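REQUEST FORM: STRUCTURE PREDICTION
Request ID: SP-0412
Submitted by: Lab K.M.
Chain count: 1
Length (residues): 368
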Amino acid sequence: MKSAATPQVPWKARNLYHDESRYFRAPGCATCIDRERCGGINSESGLLDCSIHCCGDPGACKWVCRSNPHFRQQVQEIGGFSLTNVALKATPAPPQLPGLAIQIYHGSRRTEPFEAPCVAIKLSQLFDKRTGAPLFASRAELNRVFMIADTASLIITGVDKDPVIERWWRIGRSARRRLIAHLVDMKVGIATTPNYTLSLNWPRTSDLFAMKRILLCAAEMMEGGLPTALHVNGRSPHDFERWGEVLLLNPAITHLAYEFTTGAAHGERRDQHIGWLCSLAASAGRPLHLVAFGDMRVVAPLKTAFAEVTWIDTSTFMKTINRRRATRISNNRLAWKSIQTPARSSLHELLAHNATENEAYFNMRIAA
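STATUS: Completed
RESULT:
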């Protein structure tokens, strides 16, 4: 099966954003066989329908498109585009997650384990990308390699670059299930599903394919007993309505995940995605916990709709590695000042300082 690859954008992104309040439905959507699941396109581009994004080269096509000769096999592989034909099993309750969890990328340049109630580690760093074999035999080995405390809860994050998260799918179902069982044995607190991409400028069938794969990954994780946050990627209100149906049919879902980077990270578009997520939370009819990535500013408005929000801090660790020290300014700002450290010196104390300062700044911003 040829996986979906991120296309190049021939139009400006803002011309392809879906906005029903400003633009008419693309005329070709009326007769499209996928209109009930897609919901149609309302964009400034004035396109006839999403088929205009077809690459025109079926023999080399890497997308999920009706012109792709592998389209039938792609759809069969995921059991069709429906999101209501997958049942998710309840898992043991995850640990209480804090408002902020720092993502740790490696254990280099530190001599002592990082102490925190909870840390995040990328899913892609835990298995061999070719064979699917786990890279760490035990939780103790993982803690030693990443230099984290034995007492820290683990959030395993599926948010990553497209080629990286494609590896999780390519290793196959059997390998994924073995890895999930291994994560359960290592007492992982919770995992977020891979955030398979929805894009503005490929046929919407690729979006439908991505959404179904996210759901199937969640089903595999939860069937294996791994507490899971479902990553509800969407680019239109109809996409979130479909996720709402999934929540109503599957009360076992208690945690969601969302990424506010790239398309959902800026200005008016960020506010639109916040609105869609808040509506989704309201439609669930039960408290939900959200694991959020990206812009810190999304946390406060999302806390009005979700019972709890955990923000994954992906920058503090990297700023520490790049020898930057968090410094308070006027008690309401945080500056990251470059410093010099002795050659081969440990960055343990700098990471602990930066984590403490950034958490204080985060709590102040959320309270404000």
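NOTES: The first helix runs from residue 35 to 38.
Reviewed by: T.R.
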